[in-house]
Design goal:
The complex is a heterodimer of chains A (160) and B (724).
Chain A: H1 2-19, H2 29-32, E1 40-44, E2 51-59, E3 62-72, H3 76-84, E4 87-93, E5 100-106, E6 112-120, E7 123-132, H4 137-159
Antiparallel strand pairs in A: 1-2, 2-3, 3-7, 4-5, 5-6, 6-7
Chain B: H1 2-29, E1 46-47, H2 61-65, H3 69-77, H4 87-99, H5 106-112, H6 114-118, H7 139-142, E2 145-148, E3 157-159, E4 163-166, E5 172-174, H8 179-184, H9 186-193, H10 201-205, E6 209-212, H11 214-217, E7 222-226, H12 227-232, H13 252-256, E8 259-261, E9 273-275, H14 285-290, H15 293-304, E10 309-318, E11 324-325, E12 333-335, E13 340-349, E14 365-373, E15 379-383, E16 397-398, E17 401-404, E18 421-425, E19 433-441, E20 450-459, H16 463-470, E21 479-489, E22 492-494, H17 506-519, H18 523-536, H19 541-551, H20 557-570, H21 575-588, H22 591-604, H23 609-622, H24 625-638, H25 643-655, H26 659-672, H27 679-688, H28 690-696, E23 701-703, H29 707-710, H30 714-723
Classes of the chains: A alpha+beta (160), B alpha+beta (724).
């Protein structure tokens, strides 16, 4: 009887657990997107206090990827330096984001990308935003910088 | 033009529909932990029209900035705009979210992030766009509030649907409109965004007063901070007859929103000035974090202006004598090497319309730094220093408190939901003074003269909290000297010197000493001090009343009566004297005289909570239930959390057959009354923290003698004994 009850409970709860919406601990999909109508997919989801979240979404013809990584380390300075070494150019210090943060163009990969590298206490975070197809660089830069900064503020705020 | 506005009116109809749709979507997943009818609990916030509101219904601050550049520019650096995002808040609220659940943060965020609360974003797995987090208390938060619940705080506002213009009939038209519409109808714009009550302290009370309700702490009502009440009880409100001093009427806005010259175009300016949207006060931490130099500089200037505190090195007492050398500067005396001296430092909260320090004083740090140096620069005594790691001398006299949890542990990180008791609270209420005593020895090889310097320092926040938020490696946060006093004393003869421009007159120095003695329960000394005031100002009625104020708790009723009669002979209708006369008449069994005096006090000061309370009790004792109810209800109008009002109304309503109301008052009394057993939780904290234990004793001495000599101090031994 007891086993049957447990089985029934498991059966009842199971559909709920598979329906539960995936979440990133540091930012939600609505904040990632520029518009309420944008459909955002969370493809990798962090669990606990560190890990990565990968969001993909499309606005018009533009496809964006937002990748957030958080690592809890004892020597945050060296990891921060390592991440900052991935900056290609245009390193700008961001005030009021975590303990410290920089915004820069990420080193050329396949896509044009901007990243914010920062720290809250001993938690190092990277917010990486890319867009395709490539278009006018200055236009892309402005748009991606804004997206990366908004996301970085959310991430840092939640890491405090 | 009218057609355009009609179109916007139609638009508002669409917004209603979309709001209903939005509310429906939020309701699907919203956590109604505190009941369907209290979606924003544990806060007291309300939203007109019910349901939830889309974040986008609040026009962005950048929209307002188009015409109000100065206000926008000031607001951007001010605490209101950073109220949610700044790390010192986030650290605390994130802990609440993680340990209890995000729905509990509605209590804090009703004031720190009102859009987050009202939009229903504060629930698990919310899919509300949180970009508004960056703007905290944005323009259209304050400028959309349509009413106030009470003066209980906890976000006790009634939020309307944001509108920047009304139609010709005064109906609010939600959302943004083209600037031209506003410029063509500035009167309608003003009607939409301004309310008379915005200029009153009651408006500030919505967020500058807070309690911790049972729904938050699962314990009981705990008063958190009462800045509005402190103002209401201060000389600046003109609502309280019992203040020690009188002053001009001033509101919160008078000090924190003074008119300032504009430097950027702003249509809200009048004659080139605008009510400051910087709200300069005490927070140097947040502007320092963001690098907002303008706001930081204004805050420091604010803290150092206004003659807010008076620091007085009032007296010296030689350890081998009972005689007080006082007031320093006005009397001759002699100092010699090897003299063991007690310096009497009186700090007066002179012109702050609330306590020093107000609000979350477990996070802020204000303390007294006391230094004695000789002519060679040698440090003879030092209290209130900062250690190399930035932490404060644990034995410093600090104007702080120490909340403790159910295990008697210090509640760190402002986890208010854990507070069960407060181990001590050394704030100075508005208009009152505190006496701090320091013992030191003049060295045998001293090179005279010696210089005593006392300063009140302020740091926003305490170092250990900054470390918790940012880790141990961070820049040193600013320490601001708010007020100071220096006296140079010769080794040998000291002659009277002329007072300095900032010195209080001698009668006031004695008066402040008397007030400090009273608050430290030294009744005989307090009466002696007020006697000195009488000698210097025999015409000053309050000096006699002050003696009465001391002698009532000292139970010297005959003498108290004589003094209050002297006060009334000098100032026949003085409300303060009449109030204390009434207390004595009550004790002497003269109810008619008591009643007449209290009625007169209430006539002069209808907002006096003390007079209303006593008058209610007087009517109650005389069996006039109807009049008693009237007084207690009026008292609740002033302070919704007055315990005497709850208690007496519960009985009176019951007698009148108003069972429901009686039960409601009884329930409020039960949850709001002080939990006497919670106090015992403080003891284990004090046992573990000798510095705090000493500070918790009203009459204590800071012994700065070298360690070997300290055992000779009978007084400190007594203090330590008291801390066991």
């Amino acid at each position: 009887m007891k086993c049957a009850m447990i089985l029934l409970l498991v059966t009842l709860l199971f559909p709920l657990s598979v329906k539960a919406e995936s979440q990133c601990p540091w930012i939600n999909k609505a904040t990632v997107a520029d518009s309420q109508d944008t459909s955002v997919k969370l493809e990798t989801q962090a669990t606990g206090d560190e890990g990565s979240c990968l969001f993909r979404y499309q606005e018009g013809k533009d496809v964006y990827q937002l990748h957030i990584t958080v690592r809890n380390v004892t020597n945050s300075a060296s990891l921060l330096m390592l991440y900052e070494s991935q900056c290609a150019s245009g390193v700008t210090r961001l005030s009021g984001v975590g303990n410290e943060a920089v915004l820069c163009r990420a080193k050329p990969r396949l896509l044009y990308a901007v990243q914010v590298v920062g720290r809250v206490r001993n938690q190092v975070f990277v917010v990486y935003v890319s867009e395709e197809p490539a278009k006018d660089e200055s236009e892309m830069r402005m748009s991606l910088q804004e997206k990366a900064t908004i996301a970085a503020k959310q991430v840092a705020g939640n890491l405090f | 033009m009218l057609l355009d506005l009609a179109a916007f009116s139609q638009e508002s109809g669409k917004q209603d529909t979309s709001r209903a749709y939005y509310t429906g979507k939020i309701q699907e997943t919203y956590n109604y932990r505190f009941g369907k009818d209290e979606p924003f609990a544990p806060s007291d916030a309300q939203l007109q029209g019910g349901g939830f509101i889309q974040p986008g219904a609040f026009p962005d601050a950048s929209y307002c900035a188009h015409c109000h550049q100065e206000a926008y520019h000031l607001w951007r650096q001010a605490l209101h705009s950073n109220s949610f995002r700044e790390p010192f808040y986030r650290t605390s609220v994130n802990l609440l979210n993680k340990t209890k659940g995000i729905e509990f943060s509605r209590h804090c965020d009703s004031c720190h992030n009102p859009i987050g609360v009202l939009s229903g974003a504060l629930t698990e797995n919310s899919q509300v766009d949180r970009k508004f987090d960056d703007n905290g208390v944005t323009c259209m938060v304050c400028h959309s509030i349509q009413g106030l619940n009470s003066t209980s705080g906890n976000g006790g506002y009634i939020m309307g649907v944001p509108a920047v213009i009304t139609d010709a009939q005064g109906n609010r038209i939600p959302g943004e409109v083209p600037y031209k519409e506003i410029m063509d109808h500035t009167d309608r714009h003003i009607r939409a965004v301004m309310q008379d009550f915005y200029r009153t302290p009651r408006f500030c009370a919505a967020c500058h007063k807070a309690n911790l309700p049972e729904s938050l702490n699962h314990f009981k009502f705990v008063s958190a901070f009462t800045t509005y009440d402190e103002w209401q009880n201060s000389k600046f409100s003109h609502q309280n007859p019992l203040t020690f001093y009188k002053g001009d009427f001033k509101t919160c806005q008078d000090c924190h929103m003074p008119r300032v010259q504009i430097t950027l175009p702003d249509y809200g300016a009048k004659n080139g000035t605008l009510a400051s949207h910087s709200w300069a006060a005490g927070n140097t931490g947040v502007p320092f974090y963001y690098g907002f130099d303008g706001q930081l500089e204004k805050t420091i200037r604010f803290l150092q202006s206004g003659n807010y505190l008076n620091v007085d090195i009032f007296a010296l007492k030689k350890a081998d004598s009972e005689k007080l050398i006082a007031p320093l500067g006005s009397v001759p005396f002699r100092l010699a090497p090897k003299d063991v001296l007690d310096a009497y430092v009186v700090i007066q909260n002179k012109n702050i319309g609330h306590s020093f320090i107000p609000e979350v004083r477990d996070l802020y740090q204000a303390w007294v730094e006391f230094q004695v140096k000789d002519a060679s620069g040698r440090l003879i005594a030092h209290s209130g220093f900062l250690n190399p790691d930035g932490t404060l001398d644990p034995l410093a006299h600090s104007f702080t408190n120490r909340p403790v949890d159910e295990n008697g542990e210090f509640v760190d990180n402002h986890q208010v939901q854990l507070i069960h008791s407060v181990a001590y609270d050394n704030t100075i209420q508005s208009g009152r003074s505190t006496l701090i005593r320091y013992r030191f020895e003049v060295p045998v090889d001293v090179q005279g003269p010696i210089t005593i310097t006392v300063q009140v320092n302020y740091r926003h926040y305490r170092q250990s909290y900054i470390n918790n938020v940012l880790g141990k490696t961070h820049p040193a946060y600013p320490v601001v000297e708010i007020a100071s006093c220096t006296r140079v004393l010769a080794i040998g003869e000291n002659h009277p010197v002329p007072p300095r421009p900032d010195d209080n007159p001698d009668w006031m120095r004695w008066n402040n000493l008397g007030i400090a003695y009273l608050d430290e329960l030294q009744y005989a000394d307090a009466v002696d001090a007020f006697d000195e005031v009488v000698k210097l100002r025999p015409d000053y009625a309050d000096a006699y009343t002050n003696i009465t104020v001391v002698e009532i708790p000292w139970e010297k009723y005959g003498s108290a009566w004589d003094s209050v009669q002297r006060a009334l002979s000098l100032s026949p209708n003085d409300a303060r004297a009449l109030y204390y006369a009434a207390l004595l008449e009550k004790r002497a069994g003269h109810p008619q005289a008591e009643l007449a005096d209290l009625q007169e006090v209430v006539r002069q000061y209808p907002q006096s909570r003390d007079a209303r309370r006593e008058l209610g009790v007087a009517y109650y004792r005389m069996g006039d239930d109807k009049q008693a109810v009237e007084q207690f209800e009026a008292l609740q109008g002033i302070d919704p959390d007055d315990l005497a009002a709850h208690y007496n109304l519960a009985i009176l309503y019951h007698r009148m057959g108003m069972t429901k109301q009686a039960e409601a008052q009884q329930a409020l009394f039960v949850t709001e009354k002080i939990n006497s057993t919670a106090r015992t939780l403080s003891f284990s904290y004090l046992h573990e923290n000798p510095g705090a234990a000493m500070e918790s004793i009203p009459w204590h001495l800071h012994n700065l003698l070298p360690a070997g000599d300290k055992n000779n101090s009978a007084e400190e031994a007594k203090a330590q004994e008291g801390s066991q």
